[in-house]
Amino acid sequence: MTAAGVEEAAGVLAGARRGRAWRLLGCVLALVLLYLTWWTFYALTHTRDRFVQLPPGAVASGTSERYQLVSLVVSHELRGSRGPSAPDRGALWVVAHLRVTGFGHPKFGYVCRLNLVGRHDRVWEPQMFTDVGRNTASCLDAKEGRPLVVELIYQVPAADASTLYGLAVENDTAAPMKLLVP
Amino acid sequence: MSPPAVRLQRLVAVLLTLACMAVAGIALRLTENSPEYQTVRGLPGHAVRLRGGAVVTVGSPSVGRALLGDGKVVVRTAGVYVLVPLTIEATQTKATLSEAKLVSGNRTYKPFGLFSIDCPAGFRCVDAALFEVDPARMEGLAIELSDAGVVRGYYQLVHAPLGITAGNAAAWRAAAQGRVLEPPGEPQTEAIP
Hints:
The structure holds two protein chains of two kinds.
Chain A: H1 3-46, E1 51-53, E2 59-61, E3 65-75, E4 78-80, E5 83-85, E6 91-102, E7 115-118, E8 123-124, E9 148-157, E10 164-169, E11 177-180
Chain B: H1 3-33, E1 37-41, E2 47-49, E3 54-58, E4 62-69, E5 72-90, E6 95-97, E7 99-104, E8 107-109, E9 117-119, E10 123-133, E11 142-146, E12 155-161, H2 169-176, E13 180-181, E14 188-191
């Protein structure tokens, strides 16, 4: 081979190497882009609570309890042994009766404080105290394997009362929470 | 490839590596010094909207030298009590204000007593934050509110000056004399119409 031929062959080889380097760079950038897209999608869809509605009357399990929503009633007034109580202005009471069956031996007792979920992922926690004297069972009375009906009371804006989706059973996973429907 | 071209390529690679390291170093330094919150500026009587649909309104403050409890004066101060009315509307999901402080220059005052407002979704909650401040350093007082909890990410901080300036601080001190304030109780809630 002549000197010119050798130089030409070396040029072709260098060109092929450059082409391979560019293709490798393209592959790396594509992988980085794919990873960023996937991570952004996952973060957007998993950094907020997600719910899935169960059929009416279905039972869902928490960490140490099985729940079944017996009734969900919206009311303008809450009655108890100490008389009636009106909700805040523009709001309504929502009274839920929940059948709870404990299983296992949770360290801090059974949990019955399920949140009420409405449209646009609005969530309401049950009232800690009501001063009307409702004589209903407490979750503290729950015994392993013995169903107990407890009452949970919520206050929601009147505009949301017709679009309530159910009571959310929390779990320790990233899976959507199950929504109990009466 | 000829030796000068190879040398040039290596030089470019080294320069590019150095440039990347310099950019990374500058970015790291900039992010280290940047605050972990976004300041949202407000004014008494003007609502500010935060992420998640919370609308916060700081009301006009009241000042006094004593606090009322069960209809009688229960505590007096040599300083000045500043009571700042707050309204928070949870227009989308639950809204929380977990931290409040009054700042003036390099001084920071924590609330007098506990402070936390949890406003359920769709409700308007009216509450107040109470502070005890040095009467000699009232000018420039501003309230700062945030939803930053124990575990905090990048959060928003409402910064609202209370309108106490060097020119009117004496009037505010005079207004506090002999005035008794009622400390905040349970927040008043109502559904947003």
